[in-house]
Amino acid sequence: MLDSEGYRSNVGIVIANSKNEIFWGKRSRENSWQLPQGGVKQGETLEEAMYRELHEEVGLKPKHVKIIGRTREWLHYNVPIKFIRKECRNFYKGQKQIWFLLRLIGNDSDFCLCSTSSPEFDAWKWGEYWDSLNMVIEFKRNVYNSALKELSYILF
Fold first, then answer.
1. 51-71: buried (b, 16+ CB within 10 Å) or exposed (e) per residue?
2. What is the pLDDT of residue 32?
3. pTM for this one?
């Protein structure tokens, strides 16, 4: 679902463990790392979308996490034209995201990267809060930096 400016509504998810390390997922068949994220379906609240994406991408259920924060405003990034399908180039610009900060109250063994037939990630790790930012695809880095900076006051 695109807004009038060509941005797709999306949620991003920062999962922190008890040591304030965060979940980083390695994108399937790629050498880039990112945090879970995904689109908001029509009729879904942001929280519903976040829980759906959480389960689809990392196998966690609401009982495994606690929401401890979220960004106040939409954060936007533009997708480079080479990554946009030709038929969408006239109207699609990128994504706008609300980021949720979750505390893992379950266990590492609750993660399951194969909850769907097309897994988003093929590996994962706990990392220091800022560690893997340089492994995120370049056009998303500013949004990641903004989201992590805004949410960091909750953890530190």
1. bbbbbbbbbbeeebbeeebbb
2. 85
3. 0.95
